[in-house]
Amino acid sequence: xxxxxxxxxxxxxxxxxxxxxxxxxxxxxxxxxxxxxxxxxxxxxxxxxxxxxxxxxxxxxxxxxxxxxxxxxxxxxxxxxxxxxxxxxxxxxxxxxxxxxxxxxxxxxxxxxxxxxxxxxxxxxxxxxxxxxxxxxxxxxxxxxxxxxxxxxxxxxxxxxxxxxxxxxxxxxxxxxxxxxxxxxxxxxxxxxxxxxxxxxxxxxxxxxxxxxxxxxxxxxxxxxxxxxxxxxxxxxxxxxxxxxxxxxxxxxxxxxxxxxxxxxxxxxxxxxxxxxxxxxxxxxxxxxxxxxxxxxxxxxxxxxxxxxxxxxxxxxxxxxxxxxxxxxxxxxxxxxxxxxxxxxxxxxxxxxxxxxxxxxxxxxxxxxxxxxxxxxxxxxxxxxxxxxxxxxxxxxxxxxxxxxxxxxxxxxxxxxxxxxxxxxxxxxxxxxxxxxxxxxxxxxxxxxxxxxxxxxxxxxxxxxxxxxx
Length: 470
Ligand code: ADP
Fold this sequence. Notes:
Mean pLDDT: 88
Number of strands: 12
Largest sheet: 5 strands, antiparallel
Bound molecules: adenosine-5'-diphosphate
Order of helices and strands: HHEEHEEEHHHEHEEHEEHHEE
Structural class: alpha+beta
Distance between the termini: 62 Å
Shape: rod-shaped
């Protein structure tokens, strides 16, 4: 069977039919058993009353007893027998009396209560008969007076059961058909909503990502949740696609500027013959632009590999205080050139587990920024603090600070507070985004606090290296 709808309905139909059949069979058996035992109770009650009739051999006794027992309702009949089983009286309506069998006679003579048995009349109709013995003074040590029988044709009971069965066989399939119809509609509605999700998924492309969303009518909580999750997935995809597009546009733009400068300078130089000194000047300027381009490409590659989580494979134990001192020593000439006091302090050894080059890059970018954006004769401090589970490196400067409106954006790619100044200083707005990507790839965080005119503090928190288990 092809369609999921038909398969689901078939499964539902089989289960529902089995449940309905089991319920119907149980109900029928309970009713059949109940009506048989009700009939037996009635037979025994009537037999008990009939037994009280001591003079059953008298003429007219049967008729008056029949009246007392209201035998006409239900078609009951009476029979009396002598102690040896010879017929002694019977209901007038009983045309063909039932003989008292030897076995029944002996069983009834032997027992105080009724002997119940099923038999058939001359026409083959089922009859149930209750037989009891009657002793003088109801004392079984005294002489046996005879036997009393109350019988009833089972046709009425069987007709009731047949009619019940007939109704069950009519109503059961109707209930089944109604359930299948409703099942068909419901399954169709659910699968319709799934088809909408599938249809949307199929129609999505980069260009239509922002326009395609799934709508499900309220009322079906599960389907609404599925649609909601699917739409959230599309939102996330759209956001990351937009970031990616912006990144590519920004990167292209950043590359175009040095290339345009390069081409312009070369074109101007080639317009007429130049002296060797002039060519040298153009070449020097070109080299600067090429260096800027190389730095940009290198930064883009670092970001791409940090995003992809590369470099994490080469993790080792890195002592951050020693690394901070190494980076500070490498940047000392730049600090000295601006007469900036650069200091590193650490309470104790602070080990983290990570990529040494990546962590050196983090510290270099932050210390370099602090030196680069601070005016002459300010100070830059690096503090390594060991906390219980974290190692914190704080890079603080007494520079110009960052205005509050820029603070939330400075970790974004290509974001620069003062574009012209930052470019003159050699930055493309990627330094802090590289710091963020590298720190996060180490499971850490980076925060910034700054007061305009007072300085800036960057705090890098990295998880401590786990102690080796011997
Ligand atoms: P860039 O490569 O331009 O330096 P970054 O991502 O490193 O880009 O920094 C983003 C911006 O944050 C810079 O343009 C700069 O204005 C600001 N900034 C970063 N560090 C500091 C600092 N220590 N003091 C003041 N401003 C800073």
